[in-house]
Amino acid sequence: MTEAQIILSHSRESGIVGIASGEQYKWAHTALAESGFQRGKAGAWHLPAGDTGTTVLDLVRCAQRHRTSVHTSSRRFIGDAASDLARQLPGRWEASVEIYSHPAWQEDLVPWIWDGGELGRALQNERIPYAAILTDTVRDTTLLFVERPGSHLDYLVGAFAPEGFEEGYGDPHAPHSIVLPPFPGRAAQALTDRYLPAYDRAVHARRTAAIASALDEIRSEYETWQAMVASGRYSDATPLDADALCTAVEEFLDQSWHRFLPVLDHAPPCSTSAAPPSVRGPRMLRPSPA
């Protein structure tokens, strides 16, 4: 594969869409600009409305002069696919496109993907030059939607780490991404019936584990502090005088408060339901011929 590529797909709103990829992606940008394409949202390029003078062959010839290869995708523009899926999901979902022209930009995603399945592995081992972000604006759930590597039709969807979880990479509580078909109705059904309930259960389990871990650390530090006070000495047998005792108390309280912060973050959401949530609401999807 060359150091710069242009991936072409079709959008019902923008017509032919070009996406630059590769370590020398700026060469691709130059070829697109010289061929009459205009840069739009998220860095995708498209031909202006009514432009009938530019052909794919013109782009290929121009790209060759700039050491850039041109590839035609077998799929429609991922922004269209994600928007159609978002409209089928219950609640209020928004879709946006992200482009990772340089491979390093894709690598930046890895720590934040909360996934124990195929999507996490694909981000580490496969080239994914673009994706779509699906956001539940009510519940603050954020999903990554990508074309499944090695497939001409299917997609993968998985989650970003929820707020308060810090990085998601390697978390044993992470849900497993699922494969979605190219039909928005069926994809939305799979997401609603299978993935989102599993995601909610994983969030609940992760929050519960964070609370338990914080309380265990506080308990352990309290027992250590109690033993020190009872003995009148530090752990290295140094005598503990009155001033040192006051300092030890302050340090213990400060450390305990710091340890308690995860409880403040995770306990309120957990307290809203005694059991892990299994559904997000009524299973009502918008009608779809797919």
Task: Give a written overview of the molecule.
- Mean pLDDT is 84; it is low at 281-290.
- This protein has helices spanning 25-34, 56-65, 78-88, 103-107, 118-125, 184-231, 242-271; strands at 5-11, 15-21, 38-39, 45-46, 69-76, 93-99, 113-114, 130-136, 141-147, 155-160, 178-180.
- It is α+β, with helices and mostly antiparallel strands and 290 residues long.
- The protein is 42% helix and 20% strand.
- The protein has seven helices and eleven strands.
Present the secondary structure layout.
Layout: E1 5-11, E2 15-21, H1 25-34, E3 38-39, E4 45-46, H2 56-65, E5 69-76, H3 78-88, E6 93-99, H4 103-107, E7 113-114, H5 118-125, E8 130-136, E9 141-147, E10 155-160, E11 178-180, H6 184-231, H7 242-271
Helix pairs in contact: 1-2, 3-6, 6-7
The number of helical runs is: 7
Q: How many beta-strand elements?
A: 11
User: Which blocks of ≥5 consecutive residues have pLDDT under 50?
Assistant: 281-290
- Largest sheet features: 6 strands, antiparallel
Indicate the overall shape.
elongated
Broad structural category: alpha+beta
Strand percentage, roughly?
A: 15-25%
The helix content is: 40-55%
Order of helices and strands: EEHEEHEHEHEHEEEEHH
| Radius of gyration over all CA atoms, rounded | 26 Å
Distance, first to last CA: 35 Å
The whole-number mean of residue pLDDT values reads 84
